[in-house]
Amino acid sequence: MESQRQQKMARLLQRELGEVFQRDAVHLFNQQFITITGVRITPDFGQARVYLSFLMDKNKDQALEDVQAQTKTLRQYLAQRIKNQVRIIPELQFFLDDTQEYAARIDELLSKLDIPPADEDKH
């Protein structure tokens, strides 16, 4: 369970990293639309796990590798934005958020189920 301070820091990082991806570093990723879907931060604020969603991109694994290759640059952009608000600029780790694909897969599996209607006589 995250503390309130961790949650507050995670929200700050999510908001500011979103701005970095939309404004400061958009040129690094060929105008690609990247969304920050979540941030998890360690109790010591030293590391942040950032979950990304790539809209309208067929090769998400390659896009994630491109982001991971720019981690140092992204951290510098983030530091410029939040240096007056925090003591420690966390190390960034980027991960693919596959929640939408997972939900679509569950929906597909549920739609394939053949559930017979309940007999009303048994009540």
Describe the structure.
With 123 residues, the protein is an alpha+beta fold. It has a single domain (4-114), classed as K homology (KH) domain (GMP Synthetase, Chain A, domain 3), CATH 3.30.300. Helix content is 46%, strand content 18%. It has helices at 4-24, 60-69, 71-82, 99-112, and strands spanning 34-41, 47-54, 91-96. Helix 1 (4-24) packs across helix 3. It is elongated, with a radius of gyration of 20 Å. The mean pLDDT is 88.
Keywords:
18% strand; 3 strands; 123 residues; GMP Synthetase, Chain A, domain 3; three-stranded mixed sheet; alpha+beta; elongated
Question: Which structural category fits the helices and strands?
Answer: alpha+beta
Question: DSSP strand (E) fraction?
Answer: 15-25%
Number of domains: 1
How helical, in percent, are the residues? 40-55%
Write down the CATH class: Alpha Beta
Instruction: Output mean pLDDT.
Output: 88
Low-confidence stretches: none
The CATH level-2 architecture is identified as 2-Layer Sandwich
Shape: elongated
Kindly report the name of the CATH homologous superfamily: K homology (KH) domain
Q: End-to-end span in angstroms?
A: 44 Å
